[in-house]
């Protein structure tokens, strides 16, 4: 009888062996502190801020059209390294462990998870929609949640948001997305891989509110720090 020895999983950052106790095959115990997943964040905009309050002053003054944002961490190295590997190097196997980590931060999951669509030819070239994969993996963690992947339609390519001012960002996304059909439930979550300025999820939230959705959450892997886009 031949025995097949399984080779150890190696950290994608430093190359050392990944301990099984971590429960994933992305990074090792030595690199774990680099991610700083426990930063204090505003529960509405997802940005970090130095206070014991749950909501930052900006959101208290001008609340966003959604109720809560849950993210794994900032869009900075080393977490951004894995997002780029997934998108640019077409490594979707990395999505599931990241989505599972995100799921553990969600206290009261929405019963309906809505993914942000891609243009058809972009999804065809990449081979997958990252937001759709995230939604599926998150829904699998919660018995009361299901996915809806055809609520929105994307019409055209959007310019890079971080290079635009606020008015240009809003115009940019409002010309790109529309609502195909109203969700069947009143509490939903929009699933996106990275929230940069928030203009995209703001517009999508407004479309949902117009058709009677009452509570909207945002689940994303990364939130771009405000200092990165001004």
From TrEMBL:
Residues 132-226 form the Phosphoribosyltransferase domain. InterPro entries: ComF/GntX_DNA_util-trans (IPR051910), PRTase-like (IPR029057), PRTase_dom (IPR000836). It holds the Pfam family Pribosyltran. Coiled coil: none annotated. SUPFAM superfamilies: PRTase-like (SSF53271). Belongs to the ComF/GntX family. This is Competence protein F homolog. It comes from Vibrio variabilis.
């Amino acid at each position: 009888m031949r025995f097949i020895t399984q080779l150890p999983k190696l950290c994608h950052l430093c190359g050392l062996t990944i301990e099984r106790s971590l429960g994933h095959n992305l990074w090792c115990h030595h690199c774990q502190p680099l991610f700083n997943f426990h930063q204090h964040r505003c529960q509405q905009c997802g940005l970090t801020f130095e206070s014991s309050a749950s909501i930052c002053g900006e959101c208290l003054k001008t609340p966003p059209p959604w109720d809560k944002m849950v993210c794994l961490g900032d869009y900075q190295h080393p977490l951004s390294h894995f997002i780029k590997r997934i998108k640019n190097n077409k490594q979707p196997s990395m999505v599931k462990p990241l989505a599972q980590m995100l799921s553990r931060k969600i206290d009261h999951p929405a019963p309906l998870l809505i993914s942000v669509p891609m243009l058809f030819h972009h999804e065809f070239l990449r081979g997958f929609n990252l937001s759709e994969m995230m939604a599926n993996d998150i829904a699998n963690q919660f018995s009361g949640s299901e996915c809806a992947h055809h609520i929105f339609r994307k019409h055209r390519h959007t310019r890079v948001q971080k290079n635009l001012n606020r008015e240009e960002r809003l115009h940019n996304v409002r010309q790109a997305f529309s609502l195909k059909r109203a969700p069947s439930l009143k509490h939903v979550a929009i699933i996106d891989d990275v929230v940069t300025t928030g203009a995209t999820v703001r517009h999508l939230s407004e479309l949902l509110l117009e058709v009677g959705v009452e509570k909207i959450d945002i689940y994303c892997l990364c939130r771009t720090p405000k200092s990165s886009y001004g």
